[in-house]
Amino acid sequence: MASSRLRFFLSLYFIYYFDLTVADELQSLYHDCYVNNGNYTTNSTYKANLNHLLNSLTNTTPIYNGFYHSSYGKNPDKVYGSAICRPDMDPDTCRDCVTVATRNLASLCPNFRMAIGGYDDYNYTNCMLRYAYYDMIGVMENAPYFFVYSLSNITENVEEFNQTRQSLLQRLISQATAGGSNKYAAGEEAVSTIVTLYGLVQCTPDLTESKCNECLIDANKLLPNCCDTRQGGRVITPSCSFRYETNEFYESSIAGPPVSPPTPSTNTTTQKGKNNYIIIIIVVVSVVTSVILIIGIIILLRWRKRKEKNENVEEIKDTESLQFDFGTIQIATDNFSDDNKLGQGGFGVVYKGTLSNGQQVAVKRLSKNSKQDPIKCEYMDWERRYKIIGGISRGLLYLHEDSRLRIIHRDLKASNILLDLDMNPKISDFGMAKLFEVDESQSDTNQVVGTFGYMAPEYIKYGRFSVKSDVYSFGVLLLEIVSGQKRSGFGSKDESDDLLTYAWKSWNEESTVNLIDPTMRDSPTTEMIKCIHIALLCVQESASDRPTMGSVVFMLNTDFVNLPAPSKPGFYMHSSSKPVTTSSSLERSGSSNLNRHRIEGVPLSQNEVSITELYPR
User: Fold this and answer.
1) Given 411, 498, 517, 545, the catalytic residue
2) pTM (2 decimals)?
3) Domains in the chain with CATH codes
């Protein structure tokens, strides 16, 4: 959504600074006022929120890897702001730079709802500030972009210079995208024995590895437009930037080891011929070996499949029907005698049985009061639950942002999360999933499917679904994991409460700790309360107020971010002697096959069976 909006105001800035004297104080190196994104009036709420945000950004917002992010106000006048410093700056210098930026940017862009600006003293102090009316966390934006380059051109060994520059930048891009939460890299590479290139690349740390890589690659593609023959240059976008120089412009402590120049050959033509011949031989041998190996694997797999098929056929021939009536089972287990009891689980007792042909079998007799063994709840300590929460959030982030096509799951719930032996979560059951193009954000449907209790209010009422629908389901699931209670089967002293209502009341009464599973009360609660806070942000009634999964992953992985206050969740149940009943059947033309009823003030259906569309999509 952000990239399509930015297409309308791509801007180019050519700023010449290398031959200037060093300034005594920070100067605005570049800025853009986003002219196509609307204005605010001088006495508006948006202006007041913006002033508050800018005045408090460096005072109340913790710095994280040189990165600030905060928000203030309520929609539609809510303002989001972020700032980033160069990685070699100390926190105090970074804070001073951002303070200057917050003081100047609103003056440079008066009455504009969005603005971006960079500040520099041409030495080590460098920062960028931006603010907007939408949440920028986790969103990769590569426009508007800015060029800054030297007036001095390369005069000798131009080809070697450009090749070295490209090699250096590609190496640094790989290091930055694999740098975990740092998202930057600096280093040097020799062009010759007397010329060395220095480079630095950086992404905002809220981006995923794939988004950071995409941003830097896009920025690198812009290089020929400004700096092909320049001794130094910089390409800057809202989400990433890179810079190269023939002099060291960063603190050496953040750089990796230098790369030496290639050793010149005395007989270049002969050497190239030999290298080409060797490469041809290697390629031919590799291809032949690979073909032989693939053929061998195919033959082995077919042989094993044929063998298994034959064994299965023999087993079926030798085995009578595996379906038995109750009388046969009763005789085989001696009427479920205690002498034949093998063990007992959460869902019933297992008995040993002997069929009339002498074959022994194991029979589980399901209990009417089947439930898990309570000791297993203690096995699911907070460390394991937090690992599961992180895995689910990263899985959803991949579906929403990193997959080639955006995928909306539409039925995220506890029973659709599978755990492997190492307790790693896997999102399953994509029978109701919808594929979106990358630039699509939401869609409508005439047939609402899914599991009540996990479905977002705009989906149930209007058939409107988006990534924010999955975010709502994730919020419900997150509350279930922290509380150890099911959404539909939640029980509290007030029978009119469900899990969301109880969580919201606990939050407002500052008794959130009561929501935590009693088996984990002895564990540190800071992380748990943060998860409840994030969950309440995810289940807010308005889809626009809910964070993206990129923001959720960022919030889960750092303690250095101010979380906004949540608003009332969807389907909040007000205590009342008489529940209010409403009916909504998605009254649209062409939707006669749909009839849905929603009762506000009473718990949703406890039936968690998924309803699947039975026609091709």
Assistant:
1) 411
2) 0.50
3) 1-263 (3.30.430.20), 326-366 (3.30.200.20), 375-599 (1.10.510.10)
